[in-house]
Structures are given as structure tokens and as C-alpha cells.
């Protein structure tokens, strides 16, 4: 996925994109036992392919994929495969350098995203981007990063305005199995306090946590120094961040060991870590954190304003079609992403083939302008010839439907070749079968002995 019509400006210096790709996923236990989440397919390509493609569109020159050491060889293989596919689309000169870094892990310990970033700190020389491996769809990283480099700052957090995507409200959906549909973003929605005049992010917490009784902390400094503050509860933290290299000094703190960078909270850092940034006094940081609820403070007592500028966190509101994305974080969202991928493929074909209605089309399928397809599912790499008619049927991958054929209420296995002037109704055709031209079949298995 990704839109080629991104803004034409360039960043003033190279920014590395860091893709966080853990091994297995609790939401995909059955799918990630044997392969990492980044290798799950959406459409006919992996999440890795879609991620690198979007970063290529946004003109990144270097991409680092962090994964477990056990999975690094599998990820490496898919990087080569993905780059070969993208080379055909973009040309070699536009492709980024993609490195896979395997993180050491053991059965009795886990490594958090904070430790993962520390592991590659020597490889990062400028501000850098961090994104999850399951971000799917359009994301205008260049606009996000241009906002980030406007002023000295520690971090910029991308907050998705899900209401700007134009999705219909009140629409009832059913997920796989017939259960109520749980929209992908519900657990990423955050309550935020932000200063609209400066785009400073003052506080952030998951809506689910706040609704369960967790505090959204505000300090005196917020009210005194941020008169334009706004509290929201409908933005989505999709875990896309831009950091300055100062973040590595913070991520080395003991309280972030084996934890996520999401635990880094805006004013915990400003309030308690500034002293560490100046004096590298790790012990004092730990002591301050233990007393977080009992201390009163003023930033002016801690550090000069000009230094504070380099420790602030800002927000960026990602809204509109150039940020029409989702997290593939569950079986249901994987299903939705595949439907979205198929519909996009269908829309491209439908522009030149108007006789397509209620159809799911796989990637790289070619349909003749005079063909007619209704109420059907068509796999990947399918060829449909002139004046072919397919109705209420399933055609699996790599099939060829030649001209003047009719397929009605039938299932065609993979790599079936249906020759010219054939008419197949209420039938099942075995994979890798070639049906001769002028064949007439109704309520048949082809070849006839497959169920005998």
C-alpha cells in the first residue's frame, strides 16, 4: 500500500527508519509459531514488503529492521525477495538500504523496545523514525518528519485522527465467526493533554486505562505555562515516533529496562530525567521516580529554558487520506486488511473493466475490458480473457480463463486453465487441470475421477 502522490519536498538530511518487529504475537498465536509477525501476508505480499514499499515511496535511504536473532535469517530472505519485487516497480536507485538486526533473546527473558533501540544506538547518527512492522496503508512519513525537525525536541508522537478517514459511522459489522466486530484502533485510543499553540504533548494515557481508573496526570506547570491546553480522548497512538539521538540517554535508565518505549511518558522525562541528561546521574533518576506522586516542582528550578527545548515532546495529528492506515494487530484486522488490499486491486481493474460487481480480486490479476464478473472471489495472478463471464464463483490463484468462457456457481482450484468457449456450471475443477475448449459441464467434478 502507499500513495505515490506524496509531497515532493525532501528532508534536509537522511533519517533512518527503524522497524520494530518482535517474533511471535499474542494476537496471532496460531500464525506466528513458525514465522515472525512481519512475515504474515496481506494480499500476496508480506507486511515487510508493504512496510518497505511505503518507506521507499517516502524516499528513505536507510531502513533497519529489528527482530529476534532466531528469526533474522527468515526476515533477511524476505527482505531480498521484497527488494527484488520493488526494484521492478521503482528501479534500483530509489530503493533504500535495508538491514536486519537480530536481537539476542532467551526463553526466560524478553527484550523490550527500549532495549532494542539501545542495541542499535551506535548505528544512528541523526534524528530517526520508529514504526511498528504491522502498520499497513498510507502514511505520509515525510510530512510527519518535516514537522518533527521544525524545532529542537526530544520526540514527536504521531496521533491518528481516525474520524478523518471518512469511514461511515454507526455501521454494524460482523467479524469472522459471526461475533461483534471490534475495530482495530480501540485499544490504541488515547486520552491526551496538548498545547495547541505550540503542539506540545503534555500528557498521554490509553483511554481503556483511564476508563479503568488510571490517572491522567497534570502538573501545576501545565496550567501556568500552557494556557491553550486541550484534553482529547478520540485520537489513536499508532506507535509511530520521531526521536532525536538524545533519547538514547534516557532509554539507558534502569526503569526502562525490558520495557516498551511507550512507557516513556512526556513529563516524566521532562520532570525527572533532565537532571540525568545534564549530569548522567542514574541513581538520582531512580530515586525521583520512586517519589513521583509526592514531590512538587518547577522546571525553572531544574534546568534552563534553552536546554528544556531539547527535551520536549510534541504531537503531530495525522489526518486525511494520506494517513489512511491501520494496525494489523489481530485476526480480524488481518482479515480487514486483506479485504482492503483486494478492493484496491479491484478498483484499479474496474476503471478499465466496468462490468465488475461485488468481486474480490487478488494481486496481479488481469481482466479483459470486455469480461464480466459478478459476486465472485478471484485469486492472485489470474488471467480473464475477452467476453468471459464469471458469476457466483471462486477462482483460485494462477488460473487462466480464456475468451468466450462461462463460469457459473463453480469452484476452480489453483492453476486451472479453462480453454475457449467452455461453459462450466455448478462444478468443481481440480487444481492444475486443463479443461479443453468447447467443454460443457454442469454439476460435475473435473476430472471426473477426483472423488471416485
TrEMBL record:
Residues 352-438 form the EIF2B subunit epsilon/gamma LbH domain. It comes from the Eukaryota. GO terms for biological process: cytoplasmic translational initiation. Keywords: Cytoplasm, Initiation factor, Protein biosynthesis. One of its GO terms (cellular component) is cytosol. Residues 17-158 form the Nucleotidyl transferase domain. Its main location: cytoplasm. It is found in: Cytoplasm, Cytosol. GO terms for molecular function: guanyl-nucleotide exchange factor activity; translation initiation factor activity. Acts as a component of the translation initiation factor 2B (eIF2B) complex, which catalyzes the exchange of GDP for GTP on the eukaryotic initiation factor 2 (eIF2) complex gamma subunit. Its guanine nucleotide exchange factor activity is repressed when bound to eIF2 complex phosphorylated on the alpha subunit, thereby limiting the amount of methionyl-initiator methionine tRNA available to the ribosome and consequently global translation is repressed. Belongs to the eIF-2B gamma/epsilon subunits family. Component of the translation initiation factor 2B (eIF2B) complex which is a heterodecamer of two sets of five different subunits: alpha, beta, gamma, delta and epsilon. Subunits alpha, beta and delta comprise a regulatory subcomplex and subunits epsilon and gamma comprise a catalytic subcomplex. Within the complex, the hexameric regulatory complex resides at the center, with the two heterodimeric catalytic subcomplexes bound on opposite sides. This is Translation initiation factor eIF2B subunit gamma. It comes from Theileria annulata. The lineage of its organism: Eukaryota, Sar, Alveolata, Apicomplexa, Aconoidasida.
Amino acid at each position: 500500500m502507499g500513495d505515490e502522490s506524496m509531497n515532493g519536498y525532501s528532508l534536509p538530511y537522511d533519517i533512518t527508519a527503524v522497524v520494530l518487529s518482535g517474533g511471535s504475537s499474542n494476537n496471532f498465536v496460531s500464525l506466528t509459531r513458525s514465522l515472525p509477525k512481519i512475515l504474515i501476508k496481506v494480499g500476496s505480499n508480506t507486511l515487510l514488503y508493504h512496510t518497505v514499499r511505503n518507506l521507499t515511496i517516502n524516499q528513505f535511504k536507510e531502513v533497519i529492521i529489528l527482530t529476534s536473532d532466531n528469526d533474522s535469517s527468515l526476515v533477511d530472505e524476505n527482505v531480498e525477495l521484497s527488494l527484488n519485487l520493488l526494484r521492478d516497480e521503482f528501479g534500483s536507485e530509489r530503493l533504500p538500504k535495508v538491514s536486519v538486526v537480530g536481537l539476542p533473546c532467551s526463553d526466560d527473558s524478553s527484550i523490550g523496545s527500549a532495549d532494542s533501540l539501545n542495541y542499535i544506538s551506535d548505528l544512528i547518527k541523526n534524528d530517526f523514525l520508529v514504526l511498528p512492522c504491522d502498520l499497513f496503508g498510507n502514511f505520509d512519513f515525510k510530512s510527519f518528519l518535516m514537522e518533527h525537525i521544525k524545532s529542537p525536541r526530544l520526540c514527536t508522537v504521531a496521533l491518528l485522527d481516525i474520524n478523518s478517514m471518512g469511514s461511515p459511522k454507526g455501521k454494524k459489522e460482523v467479524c469472522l465467526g459471526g461475533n461483534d466486530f471490534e475495530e482495530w484502533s480501540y485499544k490504541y485510543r488515547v486520552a491526551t493533554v496538548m498545547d495547541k499553540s505550540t503542539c506540545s504533548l503534555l500528557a498521554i494515557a490509553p483511554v481503556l486505562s483511564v476508563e479503568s481508573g488510571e490517572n491522567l496526570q497534570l502538573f501545576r506547570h501545565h496550567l501556568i505555562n500552557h494556557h491553550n491546553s486541550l484534553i482529547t480522548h478520540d485520537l489513536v497512538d499508532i506507535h509511530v515516533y520521531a526521536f532525536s539521538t538524545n533519547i538514547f540517554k534516557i532509554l539507558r535508565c534502569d526503569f526502562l529496562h525490558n520495557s516498551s518505549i511507550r512507557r516513556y511518558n512526556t513529563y516524566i522525562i521532562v520532570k525527572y530525567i533532565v537532571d540525568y541528561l545534564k549530569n548522567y546521574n542514574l541513581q538520582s533518576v531512580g530515586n525521583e521516580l520512586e517519589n513521583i506522586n509526592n514531590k512538587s516542582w518547577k522546571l525553572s528550578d531544574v534546568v534552563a529554558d534553552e536546554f528544556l527545548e531539547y527535551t520536549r515532546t510534541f504531537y503531530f495529528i495525522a489526518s486525511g487520506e494520506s494517513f489512511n492506515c491501520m494496525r494489523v494487530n489481530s485476526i480480524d484486522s488481518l482479515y480487514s486488511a486483506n479485504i482492503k488490499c483486494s478492493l484496491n486491486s479491484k478498483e484499479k481493474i474496474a476503471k478499465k473493466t466496468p462490468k465488475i460487481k461485488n468481486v474480490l480480486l487478488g494481486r496481479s490479476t488481469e481482466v479483459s475490458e470486455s469480461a464480466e464478473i459478478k459476486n465472485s472471489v478471484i485469486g492472485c495472478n489470474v488471467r480473464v480473457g475477452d467476453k468471459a463471464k464469471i458469476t457466483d464463483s471462486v477462482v483460485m490463484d494462477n488460473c487462466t480463463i480464456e475468451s468466450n468462457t462461462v463460469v457459473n456457481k463453480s469452484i476452480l482450484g489453483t492453476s486451472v486453465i479453462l480453454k475457449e468457449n467452455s461453459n462450466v456450471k455448478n462444478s468443481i475443477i481440480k487444481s492444475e487441470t486443463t479443461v479443453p475448449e468447447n467443454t460443457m459441464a454442469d454439476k460435475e467434478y473435473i476430472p471426473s475421477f477426483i472423488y471416485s
